[in-house]
Amino acid sequence: MNAAQDSASTAPLPDDAPEPMTTAQRGVWVFLVTNISAAIAYAIVVVPRALSQPIEDVSWVTPMLWAIGFQIVGTIVGSILAAIGSAVSLAARGREPEVEMVTDARDKDIERYGSRMTQGVLGAGTFVALVLAMLDADTFWIGNTIFFFGVVSGIVEAVVKIRAYRRGL
């Protein structure tokens, strides 16, 4: 590496430059996209079934398992691809990926903050699912309530974290 590249990789960012996106922040974006995509795909499959036949006859378990699997695998694969793309991009610009892509204390604080902000959503979802179970509602409604509140809490958590990355805690 020549002296110009070395100074570019270690030079401080100007005061008005945005903070570099950390690996954890990229992961939050990937999770948000996969979470919403999986929920939409699930709804596209299940809602027409629910509208065209009795609820107790709706086949919803397999599509839900596929949606959850997509959320998990999509987030993992997407995060890996985002990290690789970011490292390649930084290296192409002469910057040090190992230095700029580390997880720092801010990431840990934002992770805790985002998790704390979703506890109310998860608590409400648990309460609604319990009430449905107590009323002997069909498992379709109980399962979909849990799935719905899981998706909503994931979206809330991701949005809270993204705002914290952009504006601070």
Helix content: over 70%
Described by strand count, sense and barrel closure, the largest sheet is: none
Domain module tally:
1
Percent strand equals under 5%
How would you characterize this protein structure?
There is one protein chain. The protein is mainly α. It has one domain (22-167). It is 78% helix and 0% strand. It has 7 helices and no strands. It has helices spanning 3-10, 23-52, 61-92, 97-100, 105-117, 119-134, 139-167. Helix 2 (23-52) packs antiparallel against helix 7 (139-167). The model is unreliable at 1-9 (pLDDT under 50).
How does the SSE layout of this entry go?
Blueprint: H1 3-10, H2 23-52, H3 61-92, H4 97-100, H5 105-117, H6 119-134, H7 139-167
Helix pairs in contact: 2-3, 2-7, 5-7, 6-7
Defining traits:
78% helix; 7 helices; mainly alpha; 169 residues
Task: Provide a compact summary of the structure.
The chain has 169 residues and is mainly alpha-helical.
